[in-house]
Write a structure and sequence with these properties.
Order of helices and strands: EEEHEEEHHHEHEHEEHHEEEEEEEEE
Number of helices: 8
Largest sheet: 6 strands, mixed
Number of domains: 2
CATH architecture of the largest domain: 3-Layer(aba) Sandwich
CATH superfamily of the largest domain: P-loop containing nucleotide triphosphate hydrolases
Bound molecules: adenosine-5'-diphosphate
CATH class of the largest domain: Alpha Beta
Shape: globular
Number of strands: 19
Structural class: alpha+beta
């Protein structure tokens, strides 16, 4: 177990400034998720921690030791990739054992570690199988097992669930959370999927164009996003972000510097008065529905209902916003408080 400290990390690829002054403290035993749209620098940041990319500037400290210029193999980290690249001709046991053999770990100790990792990952019955005889989820568990047996100080995951189908992704998400609790290890996890970030993280780091937009717990980010970018990125369906004047006319009276307002679909209410609009599409999910309402000036507002409503596409509705749930953004996209 270990802490990870990033201090003013900059990374250039030629003239591309891929990481801009990134500073971050990862607490011992935390599950930290880097999230953001494709190309924002998540993988680059993870790879600099792993030592697979050098930094142009800044320092990386693991467990109080400066590792900025240390080789990946000497950083005491273990990385699980999206493509788990198991050796196809080797059994599950041999796949897990291989790295330990290379590192000169004694046979008895190797056995103990494999047994324990197999128990934690529910692979005990599968140790003699070849990867070809396993499901996608089982293969991913073997890849994680290979990491566990190394007893790393920090686990790094680069979109490890992207190759799995939707149902298996949900299952593996839960297994990874359970694994984190069982191992009590520091984990850093990269994903573009904000649902994965919300469900697994103790702390989410939202990256945008190589910079940290906000760091916080999932609920912090959901309820008090620091910017329009975070507000729009975290939450599904996304927060409604509306331009004052253009989209809303005089329906809302916000602080003077506010250019836009944000309101989540669950905080928009249907009533007899308010902004008039027409339901364009109704998405029924069973326990809830989402109404995609087009207002008179062609602005779309998404409304969450409890799934019991009798409304249909084409119906006219009036919308009001729960005032204490409004977010206000200035011209730079920063949240006004
Ligand atoms: P993400 O993981 O968030 O999708 P990346 O960290 O892979 O983003 O990439 C961040 C930016 O750096 C992108 O603009 C990408 O094109 C660029 N980049 C990544 N790796 C390299 C590389 N080896 N050479 C040049 N540019 C790179």
């Amino acid at each position: 177990m270990a802490t990870v400290e990033l201090s003013k990390i900059n990374k250039y690829y030629g003239s591309l400034h891929a990481l801009k002054d990134v500073s971050l403290s990862v607490a011992d035993g935390a599950f930290v998720v880097f999230v953001g749209p494709s190309g924002c620098g998540k993988s680059t940041l993870l790879r600099t921690i792993a030592g697979l990319e050098s930094v142009s500037d800044g320092t990386i400290t693991i467990d109080s030791k400066d590792v900025t210029d240390i080789e990946p193999a000497d950083r005491d980290l273990s990385m699980v990739f999206q493509s788990y690249a198991l050796y196809p001709h080797m059994s599950v046991r041999a796949n897990m054992e291989f790295g330990m053999k290379v590192n000169g770990i004694a046979p008895d100790e190797r056995k103990v570690r494999i047994k324990e990792a197999a128990r934690v990952l529910q692979l005990s019955e599968l140790l003699d199988r070849k990867p070809g005889q396993l499901s996608g989820g089982q293969r991913q568990r073997v890849a994680i097992g290979r990491s566990i047996v190394k007893n790393p100080k920090v686990f790094l995951f680069d979109e490890p669930l992207s190759n799995l189908d939707a149902k298996l992704r949900v299952q593996m998400r839960i297994e990874l959370e359970a694994l984190h609790k069982e191992l009590d290890a520091t984990m850093i996890y990269v994903t573009h999927d904000q649902v994965e970030a919300m469900t697994m993280a103790d702390q989410i780091v939202v990256l945008n164009a190589g910079q940290i937009e906000q760091v916080g717990s999932p609920m912090d980010l959901y309820h008090t996003p620091a910017s329009e970018f975070v507000a729009g990125f975290i939450g599904s369906p996304a927060m409604n972000i509306l331009t004052i004047g253009q989209d809303l006319g005089t329906a809302i009276s916000p602080p003077t510097k506010a250019i836009k307002i944000g309101i989540r679909p669950e905080h928009v209410q249907l009533g007899d008065t308010g902004i008039a609009g027409t339901i364009r599409v109704k998405e029924k999910l069973g326990s809830e529905s989402y109404l995609y309402v087009m207002t008179r000036n062609d602005t779309q507002i998404v409304v969450k209902t409890d799934g019991e409503d009798k409304l249909n596409a084409g119906d006219s509705v009036h919308l009001t916003f729960r005032e204490n749930r409004l977010h206000h953004f200035d011209a730079q996209g920063r949240t006004l408080t």
